[in-house]
Predict the structure.
Amino acid sequence: MSVPTPTMSQTVTVTVNGVTFERDVPARRLLVHLLRDDLDLTGTHIGCDTGSCGACTVHLDGVPVKSCAVLAVQADGASVTTVEGLAGDEQTPLQRSFAEHHALQCGYCTPGMLMSATALLAENPSPTEDDVKVALQGNICRCTGYWNIVEAVVAAGRGAA
Amino acid sequence: MLLREVSYARPATVDEAVSLLSEHDGARALAGGQTLLNVMKQRAASPDVLVDLGGLEELRAIAVSGSTLEIGAMATLSSIIRSSEVEVTRPILAEVAATVADVQVRNRGTLGGNICVNDPTNHFPPLLVALGATMTVRGSGGERTIPAEEFFVGVFETAVREGDLLTRIDVPAGGKGTGDGMAGVTLGAHGTYIASAAASVSDGAWRVVLGCVAAVPVRATGVEERLAGDVDEQSVRAAVEGLGATLDPPSDVHASADYRRSLAETAAVRAVLQASERAKG
């Protein structure tokens, strides 16, 4: 048994939106800072920075997490999807539905909303209004009053079903 | 937010994790990180070494062994919600897990982390005392098991000492004649509790435990003794009457001590009635 020696920084290999990156990062760096500052993927936003608002939501090995509450070193070997990784040549039905239903005003929370809702639709292709509200409980929006966001997700579900 | 500088290791086995925790001053286990990383931002915790348990797959297992539900300390709340073992043996655990915070937090947050934090407003400490759970802790001196009632020691304090690692939570499997309930008032729909009560009945024997009224979960032994035979709303109210006067809860911005006494009684009635209904099958 060789017990690993704790170190102040580590080399992290992480696949983000299908591209594999290797970076030396301090142990204290948050995943959201690796994405934004080291990899220049600024679509993931920092809202509260206390794990409450969900603006920094990304998929870590397929499940939504708050990237301000994960260390970059914890993501070593993992696969991450950010909002930049959702659309291919064209927007996803969910993204189009957000535009059609006016599900954003200032747009700050939108990347997190899209990541949480995308995870919901992958698990439950036709969510009800209540399903959507539960899935988006960890995402705060200060502009829309949520109604248009919920409608957009429900409609995207119907469209995909 | 920038965390204070910290060093980090990701052990591959429980033995390695215990060595790291016992050999380094200021070492702390990092489970899901949903509390620890955020209190580190506030400098309310400042570990020198983080021992990341994320690579210990053996601690994520949820299994039934004989008449015991064994939950690895690193089982996430989401995995408890989805577990068929939990659904069959002790569904209250999944039900309560689904009311903690939000999807993202439940995907990372673990049962072991939730109880090792021992925030008096957390859901699982009172529930696990009501269910008669047992915690398995490994340290450099070996392994020991601790009943839930002795596990919670004080605000943010448990029987897990420096150099120790909580590895497993054992819960007796329920069955015919068993029913569990949990009720209370939360901050927002899925927030932490202002006052809570968990109740469990097994073949007529009751355990009723209150949260948020003291540093640790409090067993309402007087209520347990007064609950006998078939209970109905009237008899439960009678059994709970006077409970508040026996408590010395804190006052804070969310509730005065008096209001908490009243909430504790209401929560206890609701939890007992829920458990009683479920015990009928």
